[in-house]
Structures are given as C-alpha cells and as structure tokens.
Write a structure and sequence with these properties.
- By secondary structure, this protein is α+β, with helices and mostly antiparallel strands.
- It has 3 helices and 4 strands; from the N terminus they run E-H-E-H-E-E-H.
- The protein is 40% helix and 22% strand.
- A 4-stranded mixed beta sheet has the order 2-1-3-4, with helices on both faces.
- Helix 1 links the parallel strand 1 and strand 2.
- The longest helix is centred in the N-terminal third of the chain and has 12 residues.
- The model has no long low-confidence stretch (mean pLDDT 96).
Length: 78
C-alpha cells in the first residue's frame, strides 16, 4: 500500500533537493509543496512541525523534520 507522502520545501533549499532526490531514487511518489509561494501550506507545515525550517516530510501523518534518511527509510519501510 502506498503511503501518502508530502514534502514541504522551498526551491532554494539544498536539503529539500536531497530529500526529493532520495524519494525519487526509491520510487516513492510524493506531493511537493512549495512553502515559499504558498502561505497556507507554510502555516500548515508550521502547525504540523512546530517550526519554520524545511524540508518537513509528512508520511501518513508522521512528521519528519529535515533530511533524516534513517527516519524516512523507517517510516516508508524501505
């Protein structure tokens, strides 16, 4: 079963690019949400993660802040 994956990111953030690259390499479908151009999404991200830093991943409701490869793998079961 595919998990719902959202990546809250900005176009200029190197960790965001690494995170998305990692997901692509593992054939994980994800919704990329640009919080620099979407104020509502930015507020949603802060509400979920409690902070402003990107990237923030929402994997089936589990919030992971930053490119934490081990946590991401664990959460996705890869």
């Amino acid at each position: 079963m595919d998990k719902q994956v959202k990546v809250y990111s900005t176009p200029t953030c190197p960790w965001c690019m690494r995170t998305k690259q990692f997901l692509k390499e593992n054939n994980i479908n994800f919704q990329d949400i640009d919080v620099s151009s979407n104020q509502a999404a930015a507020e949603e991200m802060v509400q979920k993660s409690g902070q402003m830093g990107v990237p923030v991943l929402d994997i089936d409701g589990q919030i992971i802040v930053g490119f934490d490869k081990e946590k991401i793998k664990q959460s996705l079961g890869i």
